[in-house]
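Researcher: I've been going back and forth with a colleague about how threonine-phosphate decarboxylase might be arranged in three dimensions. Neither of us has a model we trust, so I'd like an independent prediction. The organism is Lawsonibacter faecis, in case that matters for your notes. Sequence below.
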Amino acid sequence: MAEYTHGGDILSAKARYGGEILDFSANLNPLGMPGAVRAAARAAVDGCVHYPDPLCRELTAAIAARDRVEPGQILCGNGAADLIFRLAIALRPARALVTAPTFSEYAQALGAVGTQVFSHRLYAKENFDLTERVLEELTPGLDVFFLCSPNNPTGRRVKAPLMEQILHQCGENRILLVVDECFLSLSDGAGPGLAPRLAENPRLLLLRAFTKSYAIPGLRLGYCLSADGALLERLSLCGQPWSVSGAAQAAGIAAMGCPRWPEEARKLIQTERSWLLEQMCALNLKIWPGEANYLLFQAPGRADLKERLLERGILVRSCANYEGLGPDFYRIAVRPHGENERLISALKEVL
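Model: Here is an independent structure prediction for threonine-phosphate decarboxylase. You can compare it with whatever you and your colleague have in mind.
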């Protein structure tokens, strides 16, 4: 079995540490799960004696109203990762482009179907920002370009003028542009994202999830948006019919009734992220100024930092498996102040 390299592996951390874990490795809403979402998921358990709605009709209607899109532009799945793999299976593209570093599931899904995957390198000296250099690689013959904004693990968003150029060039060269907006609602200046551009960009597909915004990773709920109904139908046929459980659908519907939850979290994130940046810079750590609910940093020469912090009951995300980063790169979520204080205290002990 392949090694698990993502954040949130609490069971393994508990087994090694032997106690409760303070998890900074999963980038979730620091306010946690809304009470209404928790109650809806619990209440839905009684209905689990029946199959869930395979079409997610009520959930789709709620998403359409919140995101201001047509219900026919939505496909729900078992988390955004489910839809990434479905896309790779449905299209089996010959050539694809991803940035580096970025979320590893894009390349993993594409590699599983034999796609030739090319990486566009992002550089630390440029804050890992995407630049106009990428336009040189969006040429005829490329089938799909995966783009994450805000990017994981850097927390950097693609600037609006460059995104416009990318949209235009992908359309001109018949390249499917897949933009992962899973962290958008918890990032600075969060707005509607690219959803208003779907109708005029049929080669645009957006990935979104409830996982981060409403802190429900265990329920597995994500969705994609596209004006290409035929593409969504192909994705639907590449997944099993009951991919979204009844409890997850109920939780998603309740989450749509809490539209201000991510907004309230952003206020906390901005304050606490600034505090963490100041504290970590004072420890001579190299931190990149992210715009989302997490921070990428480097502890030069300290490839053991994750293990040393775990000895103190704190789990952080090693970024050693990200292309373009090294074993002394790490990512932390922005948490409530008391938890952030514990992290800084532990870092002072270790460093």
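Researcher: What would you highlight for our discussion?
Model: I'd start with this: The chain is about 35% helix and 15% strand. After that, consider the following. Residues 260 and 266 are 10 Å apart (CA to CA).
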